[in-house]
Amino acid sequence: MSNDFAIGIHDLSFATTEFTLPHAVLAEYNGTEIGKYHVGIGQQSMSVPAADEDIVTMAAAAAAPITARHGADRIRTVVFATESSIDQAKSAGVYVHSLLGLPSACRVVELKQACYGATAALQFAIGLVRRDPAQQVLVIASDVSKYDLDSPGEATQGAAAVAMLVGVDPALVRIEEPSGLFTADVMDFWRPNYRETALVDGQESITAYLQAVEGSWKDYGEQGGRPLEEFAAFCYHQPFTKMAYKAHRHLLNYCGYETDKDAIEDAIGQTTAYNTVIGNSYTAAVYLALAALLDQADDLAGRSIGFLSYGSGSVAEFFAGTVVPGYRQHLRTAAHRAAVDRRKPVGYPEYRELHERSLPADGGDHLTPSQTTGPFRLAALSGHKRIYETR
Ligand code: HMG
After folding, report:
1. Rounded to the nearest whole angstrom, what is the distance from the C-alpha of residue 150 to the centroid of ligand 1?
2. Which of 44, 186, 236, 263 lies at a C-alpha separation of 20 to 30 Å from 135?
3. What one-character DSSP code corresponds to residue 357?
4. Residue 2 pLDDT level (bands cut at 50, 70, 90)
5. Measured from the CA of 33, which atom of ligand 1 is nearest?
6. Active site residue 229
């Protein structure tokens, strides 16, 4: 069998939450000068899940338009990447498989390595498609980023899901070899099983991210990757959008280039539109950067995009994708903008109440407040089981 067929992202769709908290509201509550949020970290607002939303409802909402457009006959694998897992045993992907009515002849698995998980899922999907080009893989990245109230991390929360259909002859982006890889055992950000909120050493996490940029780029070069000048834009993991600017400045410095403000803006500027209003969506964030770029940039057909995926702890990967001619006919720009615009702003007390909510753990029957207007909801808990509902 020939191995030279193109494999990559055939379709991409994202969903986010019912509610949003503007940073101006958070700043007013905690007395922060708003410039720190809007300019210092580059964030305008963050997505806040309703009481009846979770990683499954967002994932199903992101993936449903993909199966509606392409059918599910060729999907034999679903890889669900998340670090806000809802169960230690069962993959969240199995709930999505059921909600979407995917064929039973399908493998479903959950993957974790902080924000890097979706990139592992994408690369594993490519391996599966290379083995059998007739198959497609549904890759889903879905996360809720939650830090303690009144902590520095609070301003970098968010939530979203990205679904990607991976297969041969992709309509959007061909994913190339090689990849540059980097792993280092650091405690910059982690969440022990008994905690709902992440623990983080903020400044250490930024340093660890920048070291990972350097390490994965170095390996990318050693593996025969493209030179920096060939890239039209760079999609970085964006825990907050200013981080992409810091990362690219660091990469330019490392490569001995001038860190010209305009050059950095050209490389990053069109990748931040969704993350700046959604906040950190962990595994989904780097692919929201791709969605923003494809939805906004002038024609990128034939151009190379650099991807830098970082997950605390830490693992990073740098790889390239080439945008496929004709890709614009396959974008979901209007739906993506609608997913962002449909969110209802909440005031500080409502946000705090949602943040402090946790699901009952007594195994009883509990209906969930009906808040979301999205296509899927977490309707109840019963006997320690999550009961989902399709509208
Ligand atoms: P902080 O202590 O609240 O803020 O922490 P700061 O004092 O560092 O200020 C932030 C920036 O705002 C600074 O800019 C200030 O100068 C500027 P910088 O020096 O960095 O360029 N600033 C202002 N600018 C304009 N007008 C003003 C003003 N005031 C200050 N008035 C921090 C910020 C991001 C560290 C915190 O929110 C945090 O801990 N967040 C969580 C950790 C995080 O996001 N780390 C990112 C790298 S790790 C990662 O990406 C992985 C992750 O996604 C998890 C995973 O992999 O699963 C987190």
Report:
1. 14
2. 236
3. -
4. very low
5. 31
6. no
- Atom 42 of ligand 1, nearest CA residue: 202
**Closest residue to atom 21 of ligand 1, CA basis:** 40
Residue 73 within a domain: yes
Condensed to tens digits (0 to 9), the pLDDT of residues 5-43 reads: 999 999 999 999 999 999 999 999 999 999 999 999 999
Domain total in the chain: 1
45-48, strands of its sheet edge to edge: 45-48, 19-22, 344-345
Query: 69: which 2 tokens?
Result: 């457009």
Q: Which atom of ligand 1 is nearest to the CA of 238?
A: 50
Q: Whose CA is nearest to atom 35 of ligand 1?
A: 202
CB atoms within 10 A of CB 349: 9
Q: Looking at ligand 1, which residue's alpha carbon is closest to its atom 9? A: 40
| 237 catalytic per annotation | yes
β-sheet bridge partners, residue 225 = none
Domain that holds residue 117: 7-390
Q: What is the pLDDT of residues 177-186, one digit of tens each?
A: 999 999 999 9
Q: Catalytic annotation on 235?
A: no
- Is residue 295 situated within a structural domain? yes
The verdict on residue 1 lying in a domain is no
For residue 369, whether the previous peptide bond is cis, meaning omega lies within 30 degrees of 0, is no
Q: Closest ligand 1 atom, CA of 114?
A: 57
Q: What is the DSSP string of 212-234?
A: HHHHHHHHHHHTTPPPGGGEEEE
pLDDT tens column, 271-284: 999 999 999 999 99
Nearest CA to ligand 1 atom 16: 40
Q: Look at residue 243 and tell me if it is in a domain.
A: yes
Query: Per-residue DSSP letters for 82-98?
Result: -SS-S-SSS-HHHHHHH
- Cα 225 vs. chain centroid, distance in angstroms? 24
Residue 276 sits in a domain whose CATH number is 3.40.47.10
Is pLDDT above 70 for 3?
Answer: no
Q: What is the pTM of this model?
A: 0.98
Distance from Cα 242 to the centre of ligand 1, integer Å = 8
d(CA 127, CA 372) in angstroms, rounded, equals 37
| 209 Cβ below 6 A of ligand 1 | yes
Q: What is the mean pLDDT of the chain?
A: 97
Tell me if 310 CB under 6 Å of ligand 1: yes
From 33, 38, 41, the mutation candidate for ligand 1 (largest count of ligand atoms within 8 A of CB) is 41
Q: How far apart are CA 24 and CA 34, in angstroms?
A: 6
Give per-residue pLDDT as tens, 98-112. 999 999 999 999 999
